[in-house]
Write a structure and sequence with these properties.
- The chain has a 7-stranded mixed sheet with strand order 2-1-3-7-6-5-4, with helices on both faces.
- A hairpin with a 2-residue loop joins β1 and β2.
- It contains 7 helices and 7 strands.
- It is an alpha+beta fold.
- The two termini are 66 Å apart.
- α4 packs antiparallel against α5, α4 runs parallel beside α6 and α5 packs antiparallel against α6.
Length: 313
């Protein structure tokens, strides 16, 4: 899908044709759309297709006719009716007349510009626009990281009452999201550091300060991701041990109950043997049956008391 936008009097508007200082947004584009935009703007086909590869690494590439900045952006997806987070590549290409973005999805980073949620941005100020996109990208990482933290706290509260594996699986998925975020943020940091040294990216006086703000936000997101990842990893190990310990307690309790109940079973089994009654103790007494039952119960209670003192119940 190809959409073209341009800011007019400080407001973003959708336009039908390419104009000077416009923004061409390619979202999940077809092969023909990619080739058309590449041909009209003098871009190498391999460069404009880079964002279509999920495994493409973040980088900055400077050519004679354009500059391409490829970064990873966060996005969410539903798995097993739960919301988890991954990263996908997004290419930002600066040409002489327009700025082009290429992404597999309509991400929240670009939606905020389309819906005019970002102040003071203009499509004709291309380098400033790039930095604003990168700044918004870093803030989206921070927002998603806070969502991950809230989800992990909700799962933690469930784990206090549950011995099932579902909660541990949810924590594992969240930890995978944090690994994706940490890796992508580290790659983005390399790109941002290189942009800071690239004079062609900085065109306006405030751009250097804005780029430094982007780097700070990215580092903050990376530190937060590392902290949450460490907490989540420790939480998973702790609750895995708790679940294993709970299982051991249940098995110990069942084993103790089995031993206690086996005593009456052995006594009654002995008296149930098909042998001469004269050889059985108390077999001739009218109170023999009662005495055997009392003996079995007292023996079981005695063993239960011993186990109780040893904290085996």
């Amino acid at each position: 899908m190809i959409r073209i936008f341009k800011t007019v009097d400080g407001k973003i508007q959708s336009v039908e044709e390419k104009q000077e200082g416009c923004w061409i947004a390619l979202t999940a584009p077809t092969e023909n759309e990619l080739m058309t935009v590449a041909r009209d703007n003098g871009i190498e086909p391999d460069d404009i297709k880079a964002a279509m590869d999920d495994e493409e690494r973040s980088r900055i590439q400077i050519e004679d006719n354009y500059t391409m900045v490829l970064v990873d952006v966060p996005t969410s997806e539903m798995r097993n009716e739960k919301q988890y987070y991954v990263t996908i590549p997004m290419a930002i290409i600066l040409t002489r007349k327009a700025i082009i973005t290429v992404c597999l999805e309509d991400t929240d980073v670009l939606k905020s510009f389309i819906e005019s949620k970002v102040r003071n941005f203009h499509t004709h100020m291309k380098t400033r626009f790039v930095l604003q996109i990168l700044y918004r990208n870093s803030t989206m990482y921070l927002q998603f990281l806070r969502n991950i933290n809230r989800q992990s706290e909700a799962v933690e509260s469930k784990l206090h009452k549950s011995t099932k594996n579902q909660e541990l699986i949810e924590l594992l998925e969240l930890e995978k999201s944090l690994v994706y975020f940490t890796t992508s943020l580290r790659s983005n940091e390399i790109v941002l550091e290189k942009m800071l040294k690239t004079e062609s990216i900085k065109k306006y006086p405030e751009d250097t300060d804005l780029l430094e703000d982007v780097i700070i936000e990215n580092k903050q997101a990376m530190e937060m991701a590392n902290i949450y990842s460490g907490i989540l990893s420790g939480m998973m190990d702790a609750f895995a041990s708790v679940i294993s310990n709970n299982l051991n307690i249940v098995m110990k309790f069942l084993a103790t109950i089995t031993i206690v109940l086996s005593i009456p079973t052995m006594v009654f089994s002995a008296y149930g043997m098909n042998v001469s009654g004269s050889g059985m103790p108390l077999s001739q007494s009218p109170f023999g049956f009662t005495a055997v039952i009392v003996f079995a119960i007292v023996s079981s209670l005695l063993v239960a008391l011993i186990f109780s003192k040893k904290n085996l119940f």
